[in-house]
Design a protein that fits this description.
Order of helices and strands: HEEHEHEHHEEHEEHEHEHE
Distance between the termini: 37 Å
Shape: elongated
Structural class: alpha/beta
Radius of gyration: 18 Å
Number of helices: 9
CATH superfamily of the largest domain: NIF3 (NGG1p interacting factor 3)-like
CATH architecture of the largest domain: 3-Layer(aba) Sandwich
């Protein structure tokens, strides 16, 4: 049975946790019991996630959105203490991987979305503090935006909003899971891709229409489940531990 330090070292190395300057404090955020037999994966840290993980008898939780951010007060008081208290009472460790999991070329959300669509990862996309957080890819067999939307709905459980103003046959795609914002939108325009996929919607309807650009907003939560599921398989294979994905859709 592996211990928490062994798994932490593996995740830090595999995800290259220290390679990007993030707004999240990535890595082991709360240390619980020494031995790990069962690992839960979830998008968000929070009371409901922690309670579900406890019910699942998890010894470690791996999340995309953790507890500690560089622009937030880290004090363990009030509602934050309520959150952490569940972990401490049950001896559950918490590991967070934010941008490192977005940008990973194998299990990252963006690479996995391209894989889901049958596209091959090609180039880095959307720099953040000197490192890319997304990827562009190319489809071997072009698809329409409607066909791609249907695949995202099926594969991610996403509720997509599509602006089909670009080429009818999509060959090239840029992906930024979660919140690409206006920066991601305009970066995709500059990249000249046939389709831009992201999570959060931005008010870009007429810009996309006038520029002749396809855009799919597939939801922040939905676009950030797929990498965690891929990572869970890696962890299970590496350490022989049981894994469970705790899906708590936000509707966002």
């Amino acid at each position: 049975m592996p211990d928490i330090k062994e798994i932490t070292r593996f995740l830090d190395d595999y995800l290259r946790t220290g390679d990007i300057d993030d707004t999240s404090w990535n890595g082991l955020q709360v240390e619980g019991k020494e031995k790990v037999e069962r690992v839960a994966f979830a998008v968000d840290a929070g009371i409901e996630t922690f309670e579900r993980s406890s019910e699942e008898k998890a010894d470690l939780i791996v999340v995309h959105h953790g507890l500690f951010w560089t622009n937030r007060n880290p004090s363990l008081a009030g509602w934050m203490l309520d959150r952490v208290g569940i972990l401490l009472e049950n001896g559950i460790s918490l590991y967070c991987s934010h941008l490192p999991l977005d940008r990973h070329e194998e299990v990252g959300h963006n690479a996995q979305i391209l894989k889901l669509l049958g596209a091959k990862v090609e180039d880095e996309f959307l720099p953040f503090r000197g490192k890319n957080v997304g990827w562009t890819g190319r489809l071997k067999n072009p698809r329409t935006a409607a066909e791609i939307e249907a695949r995202l709905t099926e594969g991610l459980g996403a509720e997509c909003r599509t602006l089909a103003f670009g080429p009818e046959q999509v060959k090239t795609i840029a992906v930024c899971s979660g919140g690409g914002g206006y920066g991601g939108f305009y970066e995709a325009m500059d990249a000249g891709v046939d389709l831009y996929i992201t999570g959060d919607a931005v008010e870009a309807y007429y810009t996309a229409k006038d520029a002749g650009m396809n855009v799919i907003f597939a939801g922040h939560h939905a676009t950030e489940t797929i990498g965690l599921k891929a990572l869970s398989k890696i962890v299970s294979g590496q350490f022989g531990v049981e894994t469970v994905f705790i899906d708590l859709p936000t509707g966002l």
